[in-house]
């Protein structure tokens, strides 16, 4: 059946090409997301990949599977995008009426965007070193962005997706020894926060309890209740704003600044990167509520270890409206 589809696709049959490639769309999209750190850039890279595959199907020799061939194209498209270095720039502080505290540091990965759980593919193969939830977590994707592009590609293909070293070498037009060397350097250079208390399972009563407590505290602007939910080393980030805050005291000052400015929010649940998320809607004096962004929580046991706020431009990808009725 595969040979027949390939023959029809080579003859210009678009339906046959879709039948060949569509089963791989979701995993290719999340692969591009891991490589690029941006949902929008990943969508663009996926479309470029499919267009290149359609145009280049005559060069497919059948020695590798269609899946491996598509990953080769997608990986090299992403490497080209990374080399182009036209990443989204950092933005200036843009929250009116709020004076932020001095940031702990300025973030490097300001182009980071969240990935909707609804679009995640099936879990990776048995050779993968990372569980799916970890392999799409914001912390992991951020750490990947700090690796050199070739090391990033090798680590994702080998450790996340479980491709054999020989196949990875073929995808990258290099040798197995080069792949092994790049993987060793990538593993050593992966800058991730030290693992602490694990997060509760998605949808579990433990996760539901933390989420419910956060919603109550945030919607009521109860700073004491909110601070009680945070770990000592809690981390706040707001890409594409570069401001980052680490530690409960400075995080509390930041959140108190929002609430003290009279900002009150309604939260609508979502899920991003295997983590609880919320569309945040600012209440106005007229009763309308305007979407200001998406919050993604990183949990540690019954506490919140990190909160990342994204711009309201990401809301449609999660099926969330730009505003809520009064």
In CATH, the homologous superfamily of the largest domain goes by the name PhyR, sigma-like (SL) domain
Report the sheet with the most strands, covering strand number, pairing sense and barrel closure: 8 strands, mixed
Order of helices and strands: HHHHHEHHHHHHHEEHEEEEE
How many beta strands in the DSSP annotation? 8
How far apart the termini lie comes to 55 Å
Strand content: 15-25%
CATH topology of the largest domain: Butyryl-CoA Dehydrogenase, subunit A, domain 3
The total domain count is 2
Query: So what's the overall shape?
Result: globular
Family: Belongs to the sigma-70 factor family. ECF subfamily.
Organism: Amycolatopsis pretoriensis
GO molecular function: DNA binding; sigma factor activity
Protein name: RNA polymerase sigma-70 factor, ECF subfamily
In short:
This protein is of the alpha+beta class and 326 residues long.
Question: How would you describe this structure to a colleague?
Answer:
This protein folds into 2 domains: 2-86 and 128-189, Butyryl-CoA Dehydrogenase, subunit A, domain 3; 205-324, Nuclear Transport Factor 2, Chain: A (Roll), CATH 3.10.450.50. It is built from 13 helices and 8 strands. The mean pLDDT is 93. It is 44% helix and 17% strand. It is of the alpha+beta class and 326 residues long. It is globular, with a radius of gyration of 21 Å. Residues 139-188 form the RNA polymerase sigma factor 70 region 4 type domain. Residues 22-88 form the RNA polymerase sigma-70 region domain. This is RNA polymerase sigma-70 factor, ECF subfamily. Keywords: Sigma factor, Transcription, Transcription regulation.
């Amino acid at each position: 059946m595969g040979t027949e589809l390939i023959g029809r696709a080579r003859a210009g049959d678009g339906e046959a090409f879709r039948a060949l490639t569509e089963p791989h769309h979701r995993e290719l999209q999340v692969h591009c997301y891991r490589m690029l750190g941006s949902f929008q850039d990943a969508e663009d890279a996926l479309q470029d990949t499919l267009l290149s595959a359609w145009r280049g199907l005559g060069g497919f020799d059948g020695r590798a599977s269609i899946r491996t061939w598509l990953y080769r194209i997608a990986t090299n498209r992403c490497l080209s995008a990374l080399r182009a270095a036209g990443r989204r720039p950092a933005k200036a502080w843009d929250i009116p009426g709020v004076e932020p505290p001095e940031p702990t540091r300025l973030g490097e990965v300001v182009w980071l965007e969240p990935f909707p759980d609804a679009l995640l593919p099936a879990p990776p193969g048995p050779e993968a070193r990372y569980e799916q939830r970890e392999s799409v977590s914001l912390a992991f994707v951020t750490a990947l962005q700090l690796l050199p592009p070739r090391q990033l590609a090798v680590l994702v293909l080998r450790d996340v997706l479980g491709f054999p070293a020989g196949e990875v070498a073929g995808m990258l037009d290099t040798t197995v020894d080069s792949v092994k060397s790049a993987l060793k350097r990538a593993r050593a250079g992966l800058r991730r926060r030290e693992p602490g208390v694990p997060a509760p399972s998605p949808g579990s009563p433990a996760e539901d309890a933390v989420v419910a407590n956060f919603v109550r505290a945030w919607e009521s602007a109860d700073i004491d209740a909110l601070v009680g939910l945070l770990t000592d080393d809690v981390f706040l980030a707001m890409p594409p704003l570069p401001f980052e805050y680490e530690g409960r005291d400075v995080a509390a000052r930041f959140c108190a600044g929002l609430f003290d400015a009279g900002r009150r929010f309604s939260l609508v649940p979502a899920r991003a990167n295997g983590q609880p998320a919320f569309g945040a809607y600012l209440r106005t004096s007229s009763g309308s509520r305007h979407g200001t962004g998406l919050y993604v929580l990183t949990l540690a046991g019954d506490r919140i270890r990190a909160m990342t706020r994204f711009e309201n431009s990401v809301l449609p990808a999660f099926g969330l409206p730009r505003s809520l009725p009064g």
